[in-house]
Amino acid sequence: MAEKNASPFNAGRLAATAGLLHDLGKYTIKFQERLSGAPIQVNHSTWGAKVAIEQYGLMGWLMAYGIAGHHAGLANGSGFDGERTALSERLRDPDLPLLETIWKQEVSLPNLKELAMPGAPFIPNAQHKNFHFGFLTRMLFSALVDADYLDTERYYDQFESKGAQRTQHRMAPRPNLAALRDELDIYMRGFNSDTGINHIRSDILAYARQQAALPPGVFSMAVPTGGGKTLASLAFALDHAIVHGQRRVIFVIPFTSIVEQNAAVFRKALGRYGEDAVLEHHSAFTPPGLDKRNPERYQAQEKLRLAMENWDAPIVVTTAVQFFESLFAAQPAQCRKLHNISNSVVVLDEVQTIPLHVLRPAVAALDELARNYRSSIMRGFKQDIAHRLGH
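The chain above was modelled as a monomer; its predicted structure follows.
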């Protein structure tokens, strides 16, 4: 599962190996005693990290952070900061129980040559080389912890009364991007283009869609107020994602009120699939009450509730705070969604609102997504602001 999560950014083998090693510390007598009911706490995360470093050197370190932190969260590289201890401190745990060597007969690890570093398209930015490795570490962590959460959930679903239902919702197919584009086309044909303003909107939409075949990268869209930027950006993003085999569209918006407004517009524009496809995720969002009297609506709402955990939805509408804080988070629950940002189209609306004091790390993260994670970034401006910014 971890391998599948990391495959879109060409790091499947690293993630798979982290998956094999993450619970290695359960090969101890102490942990077996815990399984038999002994009221003891056992560190089962550190041994996998130690073995990863011993076996794989630098690549082992990239995996070790996620393995050691798959419950406690990512460690610091060095030093101590609040709850974040250094990885070296975790590796020196004096109470670590003896690892039983039988694990070597039961866990088959790739050799160093098989576990080559991700090749193209990984292109470190020479100015941010350490940031590049830190970002990859966090993405591997995301691939691992989301797989771990889902695997644990699947196990317990066998025994819980609502488990089969949850599994059914997880497995239910979602509308693909081509189907969403078809619905959007139907919706757009319903507009009357006879008026002057609608002629302009139609021209903007047509021009935006013509650019969708351009190679993945970083784009800007400067549109006058009232020019139809919201739907034009959705049309471009869907077209671009379909042409290049990208998986989802993520809208990053500065203000909660605009998130709610745009999510409502997208649901309407995507017709019969809108309820099922658009995930609205921000701190103020309260999912609607589940209405079991309407089975289709109930299924859609329950799927979206589960998708909030890891952004496994075709269209995600979220805030800039949620998006960027997740990209720099350390806790497993916050990081689960990160691997699903890869190979996506990310639309940043009103990007000029990003505060200056966080601009450099935010831009570095966007550069890394475009450079090495097969994502396309589109920055949206109102045209008057774009002129002031020199766009």
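Strands lie at 218-223, 249-253, 278-281, 315-319, 345-349, 376-382.
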